[in-house]
Amino acid sequence: MGKLDGRVVLITGAARGQGEQEARLFVAEGAKVVLTDVLDDQGEALAKELGEGSAVYVRLDVRQEADWIAAVAAAKRAFGKIDGLVNNAGILRFNELVNTPLEEFQQVVQVNQVGAFLGIRTVAPEIEAAGGGTIVNTASYTALTGMAFVGAYAATKHAVLGLTRVAAVELAAKKIRVNAVCPGAVDTPMTNPAALDPAADPVESGAAVDELYRKLVPMGRIGRPQEVAALALFLTGDDSSYITGQPFVVDGGWLAGVSLF
Ligand SMILES: NC(=O)c1ccc[n+]([C@@H]2O[C@H](COP(=O)([O-])OP(=O)(O)OC[C@H]3O[C@@H](n4cnc5c(N)ncnc54)[C@H](O)[C@@H]3O)[C@@H](O)[C@H]2O)c1
C-alpha cells in the first residue's frame, strides 16, 4: 500500500529539482502524477521514465491562466480527476532592493506569487469536485525571515504564506487542506546554477557550495531535494489529516538561530 494510492496530483515545475523528486516519490507511493513545467524535453523524459500509467507531462507556464485551464483538462483526460496540487515552480533573482529593476521584480512576482494564486484558483474547484484533497505551496525559509539580495523573492514567498493561510480557511469546508513547505538551502539548479553549466568544474562548484553551507547551517550541509519531497508527501497524504494553513520549515536548523563557532 502506498501513501498516495488512488490520488492524482498536479505538480508545477516538475521537470527538475524539488518538483522532480516530488514526482518520483509520489509515483513510488502510488499516485498518478501530472508533471508540468516549461522545460518540455526534461518533463517529457521524466514522464516517460515514470511510465504512461503513472505520469503524464503537460506544458504549463504558471503565469498563464490559459495554460492552467488546459493543464487541468489534460489531467482529467489522462486520469479522470485531480485531488492534489503542489505549487512548486519558482524563480530566484539576486539583487539589492534599491538596484532591482521593476521588470525583474514583476517577473519574480508573476512566477512565484501569481503562479501560486492561479494554481489555487484553477485547481481548488477540481479538488472539491473530486471530494476533497490537498494543496502544498512551496514557500521558503525567506517566507519567514529576511535575507539580503533576495528582496523580490522573499516578498513573493511571504505572499505565498499569506495565500496558504487564506486558502486553508476558505477551503477547509470543501475538504481541501492547504499547507506550505519552507525549504532552507536545497541542492538544485536554483542554488547551484554552475551544476547546469557544462563549462563549470562540478567538483569545484560542489566544494564551494559545501563550504558555504557547512558554516551557515547548524546541520552543516545543504539539503537534498528528496528531503523536501518527503515533507510534501507528508502534507499531501493522510498522515497530516488534521493539519492545514501551516508553514513547515525544512532547513537543517538554519532558521533556529546563529551559532557562534
Ligand atoms: N533550492 C532551494 O534552495 C530552495 C529553497 C527554498 C525554496 N525553494 C523553492 O522550491 C521550488 C523549486 O525550486 P528548485 O530548487 O527545485 O529549483 P529549480 O530551478 O531546479 O526548479 C524550478 C522549476 O520551476 C520551473 N519554472 C520556472 N519558471 C516557470 C514557469 N513560469 N512556469 C512553470 N514552471 C516554471 C523551472 O523550469 C524548474 O523546472 C521553487 O518554488 C523555489 O523557490 C527552493
Automatic annotation (TrEMBL):
GO terms for molecular function: oxidoreductase activity. Its EC number is 1.1.1.-. SUPFAM superfamilies: NAD(P)-binding Rossmann-fold domains (SSF51735). Gene3D superfamilies: NAD(P)-binding Rossmann-like Domain (3.40.50.720). Keywords: Oxidoreductase. NCBIfam families: PRK07231.1. PANTHER family: DEHYDROGENASES, SHORT CHAIN, ESTRADIOL 17-BETA-DEHYDROGENASE 8-RELATED. Belongs to the short-chain dehydrogenases/reductases (SDR) family. This is SDR family NAD(P)-dependent oxidoreductase. It comes from Streptomyces albidochromogenes.
